[in-house]
Amino acid sequence: MPLRGENENMSGTVARFGAEASLRDRLNRPMRDLRISVIDRCNYRCPYCMPADVFGDGHDFLPRAHWLTPGEIKRLAGLFVQLGTNKLRLTGGEPLLRKDICEIVAGLAEIDGVADLALTTNGSRLAEHAAELKRAGLKRITVSLDSLDPDVFAAMSGGRGDVATVLAGIDAARTAGFAPIKVNVVVERGRNDHTVLDLLEHFRGSGVIVRFIEFMDVGTLNRWQPSQVVPSKELLELIAARWPVEPLASNYRGEVAERYRFLDGAGEIGFISSVTAPFCGDCHRARLSADGTLYTCLFAAAGMDLRGPLRAGASDADLVGLLQNVWRNRADRYSELREELRRREADRQRIEMYRMGG
Ligand SMILES: C[S@@+](CC[C@H](N)C(=O)[O-])C[C@H]1O[C@@H](n2cnc3c(N)ncnc32)[C@H](O)[C@@H]1O
Ligand code: SF4
């Protein structure tokens, strides 16, 4: 553990911790990827994430004073980068609800060694913000859109989402120069699975990469049942029967989506199959919540507070020591053990996705 009170600046940290790019957890996984949730609030109420009957108007979200500031986010992210992280993704809650989102992006864009800086949004405010996000230095955008059917989409967003607004956001992102844009589709049996082909028909040939995500048992409030999951394999067969596809190689080790391309040249699609084909063995991802808690798994029950030490004056060396300790002790592989853990720890309270960041 480094000495508390050592007053180092960031360049001192670079020199001291550069060698730690080899940091590994207990399953020999590096810390390559950091998801930063900048807010736990959202203007949607997707039933698989923040069901409207649970998250009413009076819901107790984090007080704003607990949100990390743009400067704090930049400082922590810089330390992750010293420890081998090279991909950053901003998420939430809905990240575009933060008024200072462009300041956050601009700060992260200044960190040396970041190969990728991305953001996931529900698209409801993207039309207004796409150009300024690009100017601030954001490299990639993923937009969530579960159906093009207005009624189905309304149901999938808790009655709050409007398809035309999200499509306008995607267009604005394209105009601003983001390419390729990805669209995330959570597929839930009996709710939106019958609209998948229409959605693909719309985006085929547009350059947008649609990725289908299996409905996951994140948190404990979405009343997840295995029967609600549409396995990616089933979806792939449905799609391939209409438009033949072939598999593509991963872009990099640890990529969570399995990629396919349409044989007629109309582009690429992906499948994220955390339930039926867990990828824990290659999970290089840490998560930082809006209040500065570090989580080492999407299905975690607890995390490590970094905001406390940060605001109490911890040096970079102190904070790096905390990060190293947490990562070296990491052994999470929830998705691989899902059935056993759900049986054994039925009452375990997992942290909700809107809180730790999707
Ligand atoms: C938590 S959201 C945060 C960012 C933004 N609000 C959005 O919806 O894109 C990030 C991603 O997680 C996905 N997601 C949320 N709950 C999920 C669940 N239970 N299973 C699978 N994906 C989920 C969302 O669809 C979205 O693509
Ligand atoms: S998935 Fe995104 S848009 Fe939907 S409720 Fe969760 S945070 Fe909001």
Helices and strands, with pairings:
Elements: H1 10-17, E1 33-37, H2 70-82, E2 87-91, H3 101-109, E3 116-121, H4 126-136, E4 140-144, H5 150-156, H6 163-176, E5 182-187, H7 196-203, E6 209-214, H8 232-242, E7 245-247, E8 258-262, E9 268-272, E10 285-288, E11 293-295, E12 304-305, H9 307-311, H10 316-328, H11 334-344, H12 353-356
Parallel strand pairs: 1-2, 1-10, 2-3, 3-4, 4-5, 5-6, 6-9
Antiparallel strand pairs: 7-8, 8-9, 10-11, 11-12
Bound molecules: S-adenosylmethionine (SAM) and iron/sulfur cluster.
Iron/sulfur cluster binds next to loops.
How would you summarize this macromolecular structure in one to three sentences?
The protein is an alpha/beta fold. It has helices at residues 10-17, 70-82, 101-109, 126-136, 150-156, 163-176, 196-203, 232-242, 307-311, 316-328, 334-344, 353-356, and strands at 33-37, 87-91, 116-121, 140-144, 182-187, 209-214, 245-247, 258-262, 268-272, 285-288, 293-295, 304-305. Residues 1-16 have low confidence and may be disordered.
Written account of the structure:
- The chain has 358 residues and is of the alpha/beta class.
- It is 32% helix and 15% strand.
- It is built from twelve helices and twelve strands.
- Helix 2 (70-82) crosses helix 10 (316-328).
